[in-house]
Amino acid sequence: MKISKNDALIWFDFFSQLTEDEEISTKYEEIIYATFAQIEAAIDHRNDTLMSEIKSLKTLENRTFFVGNENKFPDGCRSCLLGTGLSAIRKTNKCNLVCKFCYNYGHLDNIPPVGEDMWEFGGTKFYEKDFDLLLSIYQKPTGISYVYLEPFMEIEKYYSVIKKFSDAQIYQHLYTNGTLATEETLKALGEAGLNEIRFNLGASGCSDKVIENIGIAKKYIKSVGIETPMTPEFFEGFFKKKQAILETNLDFINCAELHLNENNIDNYYGENMYISRQGYISPVWSRELTLKFMKIAEKENWDLAVHDCSNYTKFARGLNLNSKEGMGFGASNYACEFSRIPYEVFIPILNDDNFEFLSEEELPDDYKPVLAY
């Protein structure tokens, strides 16, 4: 069903006015999915055009795209897309910053604690003394990551845990906004055996202090990079300080396609949105900016890897991890993060005169939008 943009707009205006207790019929679902497919096809076409302009675009076994030095592509991402990582470790439930792209936006003061002296793996709570038991029972993952929320709020608790998994020869990477890091703590992480650290440079607005800390981290930790949701603010901020950032000799830049949930989507109200494979909802500009960023990196021959960590990449990640866990053929945890699709967020792109569907056809009589009213 190649629904027209005008018909889709009329229908989505209707869907956005439905109350939560009004059911979406099968016929409505056909219209909704047809509209999503039309939007996504047009977005894919635009992105494919941008990708065609990047002459040295590389893939990681067709699971993601990157440009630059293949030897600097982060092993944490290899573990995630090819191995049995990303095995997330949760400890810290606090953050010192508030970012509008944060998945916990508006709820940072209400994140449940993991528990005193406890760590969370795979939804299970462990004491550090339990790690030997865990390692003796489970097959070692190819990698683990410290992701929750800002570890430098209590970084001294991490050293012995990192040392334990380093001794077990498990690859480890850690995420941070970098504002609380010091030379002393970065050195301690390196000595404990941390393999890779990722700075969310966009969280601090490309702070000079964080850029300096990226350079310091390179003295002590083998693989150092940036991982930030790609936004117009980060794109602009990065190029204002590009020279200083590149002079840190960082290894990689992961440009994450920003996807939204119920906590942060209102911060981007009015932007053109699309839904990828009926899963993640993202602003259209996020991946477009990543591809433009990669084209510049290629043209200027930056000596690092720039990774397009897109919704496609996250889809591939889910397939890989579920296959490694012995799930059924095609099983994936990639899914929409909304309990009810927010139809109203697609009104702007359907109203945009500069956005067109690739092809359109007249709807069957019983699907025409006049029936909605």
Q: Report Rg.
A: 22 Å
Can you give the helix content as a percent range? Answer: 25-40%
What is the CATH T-level topology of the largest domain?
TIM Barrel
| Regions with little confidence, pLDDT below 50 for 5+ residues | none
Q: Beta-strand percentage?
A: 15-25%
Strand order of the largest sheet: 1-2-13-10-9-8-7-6-3-4-5
User: Which whole number gives the mean pLDDT?
Assistant: 96
- Give the number of helices: 12
Major β-sheet, in short? 11 strands, mixed
Task: Please outline what is shown here.
The chain is 36% helix and 16% strand. The protein has helices at 5-15, 26-52, 75-82, 131-137, 159-167, 183-192, 208-220, 232-240, 242-246, 284-300, 311-324, 347-351; strands at 58-59, 65-68, 87-90, 118-121, 124-127, 143-148, 171-176, 196-199, 223-229, 252-256, 273-276, 280-283, 305-309. A hairpin with a 3-residue loop joins strand 11 (273-276) and strand 12 (280-283).
